[in-house]
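Running log. JK asked me to keep both predictions on one page so they can be read side by side. First protein, sequence followed by its tokens:
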Amino acid sequence: FQMGTKKDNENKRELAKMLYVGGSEVAEIAERVGVSRQSVSAWINKNGWKELRAARSITRPELVNKLLVAINNLIEDVNT
């Protein structure tokens, strides 16, 4: 049994990230990348992939509206 190189692991993690952010499930990612489900879950939690995945699913108008609301709230906080 030979351990993968650091570069191999980085490549696997990057592929897993793209698959996860793209909407694939943990079990499918683990199988395709060749790592355990636990490894994929650890990468998701350690590297903030849930937030990236959520950000990908938001539409541009939704994002603009959220930003405008946040800006408005900041302005109100400053003025009170």
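And the second, directly underneath as requested:
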Amino acid sequence: TIFAYGPTGTGKTYTMLGNQDTPGLCTLTIQDIFQFIKKDSDNEYQVTITYVEIYNETIRDLLVPHSTYLELRDDPLKVNLNQNISNTFLQKFYSQNCYLKVMNLLFLGNKRRTTEATNANQTSSRSHAVFQVTVNSRSRTKNTEQENLQGKLSLIDLAGSERGTVTENRGIRLREGAKINQSLLALANCINALGDKSKKGFFVPYR
């Protein structure tokens, strides 16, 4: 998992997405994956992607036009961070065999993301965006004992932390900023708990 983290207006979304002239991390990742697949003639691959935003503690699928907010349910088959992903979200996978098609989905999804102008940023992201790539591979050779393999990479563009004295937000923007800061604090608490080896078995506050 790769996080883009920092104050609002510091270039997190640009780092992740870039533009047509300067590709970002998401674009370069997809490009490298498909270049690797093209060179590997011994295995067959399936690439699936998801792209969602977390806005005011709700989840919306950015790959679906006019997506409604998704209901969260606990999944007993999942553990740790994955256990809160909704069943609806898990069904909205997009299998792609073409780099350009994936890029088109990514940029269309980003246009659906919640953004607003603030004093600190003309196009401030008001949500966290999670772009997830899953790659499954298996040998093309029949009757092989080689197991199927799966890899998963999450690229997360976090909304920027805000100070009301700097942004001078009011009303809805102020409430959004409070939710953003609250969720960033919760994430920091989880990462600190996971990284503290002295607290073995310590409860990680995912929720």
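Observation for JK regarding the second prediction: The mean pLDDT is 74.
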